[in-house]
Amino acid sequence: MRKPVLIVVAIVLAFAIYKLSRRGSGPAKPGSPPAAVHSVAPDFLLQDLNGQPLGLANYRGKVVLLDFWATWCMPCRGEIPHFVEFQDKYRDQGFQVVGISMDDGPKPVREFYQEFKMNYPVALGNEKVAEAYGGVLGLPVTFLIGRDGRVAAKYVGEVQMPTLERGIESLLQAK
Amino acid sequence: MLLCCGVLTAKSVSVYLRVHMKNLVRCYSFILVLGLSAAMFVPTRHALADGFSGSSAASTEPTQAQSVTSDLAPGSAQLINAEHLVNILRSHEGEKPLILNVGPHLIYMQAHIPGSEYIGPSSDAQGIGSLRRRVKLLPRNTYIVLYCGCCPWSHCPNVRPAYNELHKEGFSNVKVLYIADNFGTDWVDKGYPTIRGQ
């Protein structure tokens, strides 16, 4: 009689420890599971500024630089001319920049797109995409995604361009 | 005689334990299971829920004289750090600030400080208009905390215009939450309380 009771207690105890350990990790960080390095980059389907569908799946087999940015974000504004340059420089090797703007509306994004002569697709982001990528709770956030569709690197805040470019070249060379 | 009594007592205790042990095990197991179940399934109570009214407009005298400068340099008197704010909100005593988010909506929707109100980015006229409407009827000594966290402190386009506006409107007890890098790194990742949605 005692044995079954002890088994039940042990099971409940193990379950309780598991639950309590999860609770102890603090408030739920938006986006789970996050797009961690080495994990498959979550696909999404958005509309670009011209109303055309924009999804990550369209670029499978390419090295993708996924940039979460906004027109009001000064570090983002500093990065974008470099991304435009990278897009031109590495396009033929299978490189693609994709921008996801976290602006609240399309108007400033369209104006910015023209002004900065952006040469890669940009879509307005939403909560769902942000959370799929681990929560975008500050900008800029940049992901480098390899040809295999896996996240190779994540940069929170302004990224050092030489570091980023080395990462791009390394991924482009990998088969 | 003594030995006989000892043997009899030990035997009685042994019999008693054998009879009641099963019941004791069941009883303690039941209590243990009940307690653990309660711990597992009772929803986590929010640390900031206690006594916190985000729209509190109770008035007190400003705690520090505020200068008219608006550069909000790190360490300046107009700023409040995250730990200090959390302590104020968790405390059962003292005045609770009205917390206004003057940042982008998409970030607010993902995570924000419990009890905070969404105003909108103060970098544009619409956001400043919303801020002005929200505080219009408040006593000028209302304790207000502004925050954004969209990007690194020196680059935030929202907190300074918001602070300047409230200063211009005559509010004398305004603090700005100092967020060095962004709301994710400096608040969420540190385990401070957040909620999501509207």
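The two ends of chain A are 62 Å apart (CA to CA).
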